From TrEMBL:
The keyword Transmembrane applies. PANTHER family: INNER MEMBRANE PROTEIN, INNER MEMBRANE PROTEIN-RELATED. The chain crosses the membrane at residues 6-23, 35-52, 64-87, 108-128, 192-214. This is Membrane protein YdfK. It comes from [Clostridium] celerecrescens 18A. It comes from the Bacteria. It holds the Pfam family DUF554. Keywords: Membrane, Transmembrane, Transmembrane helix. InterPro entries: DUF554 (IPR007563).
Length: 238
């Protein structure tokens, strides 16, 4: 069944969020703060792992770097575009709308939880590659694996940031669902180099999400999202 992978992923996020709410109600605030710091550290190292995997290679027996110029240009141009479009504010407005229709006006952390969780589970090569495979052959194995990872991540985040995290299932459904529907059009552009660039920039953004979890909202991560699309485009620059 085409699209089953995204449905499994959405179900995993919902299950993680509900589990987080149950655990969160039984925890004192100091435990929640410590857990959020722990989640931030884990997200930081997920980002670092992805960056190191794509940037560092062994050439002639020596460790060397790659993709530096692409990364700099992608984030330089992408941040300007994102700030101009103010994507962060758009995500926050959508979060505020979800907050209203779900009668969550008393939850001060709702929007922050929604934005932070959405950026964490939407960014990355697994979402793109998994959705393409699901759309072309019905192979949902990558998205099923992602669903398990997202379940754990959202469970931990929900304990500390509240039920807004559960609604990260909405952008995941829209993002991955759209890629699944357009899979045959997108697949030719997802070359090995394009996927490598996407994974690298996505990992940097995940690292930024981790920073925000630990030290508060230091970076408008959503305003950096155009860097991902520019990174894929740079794969086709001679």
């Amino acid at each position: 069944m085409i699209g089953l992978g995204t449905l499994i992923n959405v179900a995993g996020i919902a299950a993680g969020g509900l589990g987080g709410l149950l655990f969160g109600k039984k925890m004192e605030e100091r435990y929640q703060r410590t857990l959020m710091s722990g989640a931030g550290i884990c997200v930081l190292f997920l980002g670092i792992e992805g960056v190191m995997e794509e940037m560092l290679v062994i050439r002639q027996g020596e460790l060397a770097g790659r993709g530096t110029m692409m990364l700099i240009l992608s984030f330089f141009i992408g941040s300007l575009l994102g700030e101009w479009m103010n994507l962060e504010a758009a995500m926050e407005r959508f979060g505020e709308w979800l907050k209203r229709i779900t009668n969550s006006s008393g939850d001060a952390r709702f929007v922050d939880g929604f934005v932070t969780a959405s950026l964490t589970v939407c960014i990355g090569a697994m979402a793109v590659v998994g959705a393409i495979k699901d759309g072309i052959s019905g192979d949902y194995t990558i998205l099923a694996a992602k669903a398990l990872l997202d379940l754990i991540i959202i469970l931990v985040m929900t304990v500390s940031l509240g039920k807004g995290c559960i609604f990260s299932a909405v952008p995941v459904a829209l993002f991955q669902g759209t890629i699944t529907l357009l899979a045959r059009l997108i697949e030719p552009f997802m070359t090995a180099q394009a996927l490598s660039n996407l994974s690298l920039t996505g990992s940097v953004l995940i690292f930024c999400v981790g920073m925000n979890l630990i030290w508060g909202k230091m970076i408008k991560v959503a305003n950096l999202l155009p860097a991902i699309f520019l990174a894929v485009a740079f794969a086709f620059v001679p």
